[in-house]
UniProtKB/TrEMBL annotation:
One of its GO terms (cellular component) is extracellular exosome. PANTHER family: BPI FOLD-CONTAINING FAMILY B MEMBER 1 (PTHR47395:SF1). The gene is BPIFB1. Coiled coil: none annotated. Gene3D superfamilies: Bactericidal permeability-increasing protein, domain 1, Bactericidal permeability-increasing protein, domain 2. One of its GO terms (biological process) is innate immune response in mucosa. This is BPI fold-containing family B member 1. InterPro entries: Bactericidal_perm-incr_a/b_dom, Bpifb1, Lipid-bd_serum_glycop_N. Residues 1-21 form the signal peptide. Residues 36-257 form the Lipid-binding serum glycoprotein N-terminal domain. Keywords: Signal.
Length: 475
């Protein structure tokens, strides 16, 4: 028996090994800048960003401190402002958002270009003086660490971009009106950035928080696996280049809502591919994929009246048994039974671009449906090619072929014999009975809700050496 010192030493070695290992999350959702731009643009529209721009209080803003602290100059400007009846935004547009790595490399810079035209009405002229204003709002998406060490995405430093403000007259009028307009434009230079900060930035912050909440809600949508379901949750976010990566935890729940398996960070490897121009990707670790397949294909027992269902196969089985024992073959009646038991769930083995599934199977042959003991019981290690593909927004899986890689005679009522004599016929039985049954259970596929939720019609998938990756299909 190992002593306390040995136990302590083993624990220390295990802790050191785990401390030095790179722990991988069960899944990673990578979001490219196109998704971020599109989602944030939609939320800005939902919060009526254009309406807020059109109601910016320009006139009251330039009247707050029209001439700084110079009294004489202030009186002149005030007399000029008295000639303005109203000053308001007559048209506003938010141009295409830009998302790129921030200058300090610690986040993503979101740039929101604004294009506005303001109308200036004065009794000095019957027509409206139009002022063109262009500026850019910038904010930084960062990963923030809270007091308890939890990390989350935040929007930081919303303000007018340095040097982005440009104000000009759309068309020149009389000298007097042009002078008045120039004075107004000079007052808008400090006033507009303040209005952006106080009026627009709170709305941008709210739009970002809505986008973030929608993203987390979509991540947490349960993935149906027959009667079971798989659920993801956010572990921690990270920003790498121009990509937001959400590290996800996972759990498997049964039909009663009880958690049957937890997945957290572990030393199991996970290869997250470079996103490139792909809008998003969901990378799922091999053990999570295997658990999903397990949920779809739990252990079961198949009982088949072979002579009724597959008479030609029953005839070939009888011929094979006749080689072992003619007396046993003659006992096979029209109600002969083949029983297939999958004692353990399939084990999925991923490789770069391909996958295999291995499973342990018990096969029994009974002379009739009234027989209490089988002629023989075979233990079979079988394997199949596992083909992943997509259909619309669903991930599909199909087992192609099946081979009996190893056969062991577990017990026999007809004397000892080499199970290799039955290799071909047992493979045929598995191909004809087990394979269609398993593929039938896999036929409904696994829904990937975020594909259509983000406006894509179809999903696409591929395999790495240790993970399954789902992306939207190219248009």
């Amino acid at each position: 028996m190992a002593g306390p010192f040995t136990f302590t030493l083993l624990c220390g070695l295990l802790a050191a090994t785990l401390a030095g290992a790179t722990l991988s999350p069960p899944a990673v959702l990578s979001l490219g800048r196109e998704i971020i731009k599109e989602r944030l643009t939609q939320k800005l529209n939902n919060h009526d960003a254009i309406g807020i721009l059109q109601h910016l209080p320009l006139l009251s803003a330039i009247r707050e401190k029209p001439a700084g602290s110079i009294p004489i100059l202030g009186n002149v400007v005030n007399s000029i402002l008295n000639h303005i009846i109203w000053l308001k935004i007559t048209s506003a547009n938010i141009l295409q958002l830009q998302v790129e790595p921030s200058d300090e490399g610690q986040g993503l810079a979101v740039k929101i270009p604004l294009d506005m035209v303001a109308g200036l009405n004065t009794p000095l002229i019957k027509t409206i003086v139009e002022i063109h204003m262009e500026t850019e709002v910038q904010a930084i998406i960062r990963v923030n660490t809270g007091e308890r060490g939890h990390t989350h995405l935040v929007l930081h430093g919303c303000s007018n971009s340095q040097g982005s403000l440009r104000i000009s007259l759309l068309r020149k009028l009389s000298f007097l009106v042009n002078s008045l307009a120039q004075t107004v434009m000079s007052l808008l230079v400090p006033a507009l950035p303040k209005l952006v900060k106080t009026q627009l930035c709170p709305m941008i912050q709210a739009a970002f928080e809505d986008m973030h909440a929608d993203l987390l809600h979509l991540v947490r949508v349960p993935v149906s696996l027959g009667s079971d379901r798989l659920e993801f949750d956010l572990l921690s976010p990270a920003i790498k280049g121009n990509v937001i990566q959400l590290e996800l935890g996972a759990k498997l729940l049964n039909s009663h809502g009880d958690v049957t398996k937890w997945f957290n960070k572990s030393a199991i490897s996970l290869t997250v591919p470079y996103l490139d121009s792909t809008p998003f990707s969901l990378t799922v670790r091999q053990d999570v994929v295997n658990a999903a397949v397990t949920a779809l294909l739990p252990p079961e027992e198949l009982v088949v009246l072979l002579d009724y269902v597959l008479p030609e196969l029953a005839h070939r089985l009888k011929s094979n048994i006749k080689v072992i024992s003619e007396q046993a073959a003659n006992q096979l009646g029209p109600t002969q039974i083949v029983k297939i038991l999958t004692r353990q769930t399939p084990e999925l083995l991923l490789d770069q671009g391909s996958a295999k599934v291995a499973q342990l199977i018990v096969l029994e042959v009974f002379a009739t449906n009234e027989a209490h003991h089988p002629f023989f019981t075979l233990g079979i290690e079988a394997s199949s090619e596992a083909q992943f593909y997509t259909k619309d927004d669903r991930l599909m899986l199909n087992f192609n072929e099946i081979s009996s890689d190893w056969i062991h005679l577990m017990n026999s009522g007809i004397g000892l014999f080499s199970p290799e004599l039955l290799r071909n016929i047992t493979t045929e039985i598995l191909v004809s009975i087990l394979l269609p049954n398993q593929n039938g259970k896999l036929r409904s596929g696994i829904p990937i809700s975020m594909v259509k939720a983000w406006g894509f019609k179809e999903a696409s998938s591929f395999l790495t050496k240790d993970s399954l990756v789902v992306t939207p299909a190219a248009p």
